[in-house]
Specification:
This protein is an alpha+beta fold. The chain has one domain. It has five helices and four strands. The protein has helices at about 5-20, 25-30, 75-85, 105-115, 120-125; strands at about 40, 45-50, 60-65, 70-75. A four-stranded antiparallel beta sheet has the order 1-2-3-4. Strand 3 (about 60-65) and strand 4 form a beta hairpin.
Length: about 130
Amino acid sequence: MSAGAERQRHYRAVVVLKKDPCEENLWKCVVAFRGYKFKTLSGLPFTYKLKKGREDEFTKELWIDRREDSKSLAWSSVMLAYHNIGKIGEVVDRPKALGDIRGVSYIYGMFYRFGLIDVPDKVKEKMGVKEH
């Protein structure tokens, strides 16, 4: 897929999620962004992969690639954090504000890129992310 087509896929997924923030659209966003280079609050880069299960559908487990080893991030953890967002688009100071959830530092970076949360300006600098 070309870089332009990839950007379009990301853009469309975010627009749909912002218009109708629900579990189904969040999952579509997660699928669209697999392989995308995110950053944690401290600026550490990471990507994630999704594996396919039966009937060639993605399993609801994200495989975080940050170093040599992959860590699994369960969809239930993503949903816990999602339900802890007060209001879509509001500033969330730090990952733990989304809950004491395994892998929340990765979820924080993803939710910011997806437009579900905003982050303080000083965090934007660390994450090296432009406004979206």
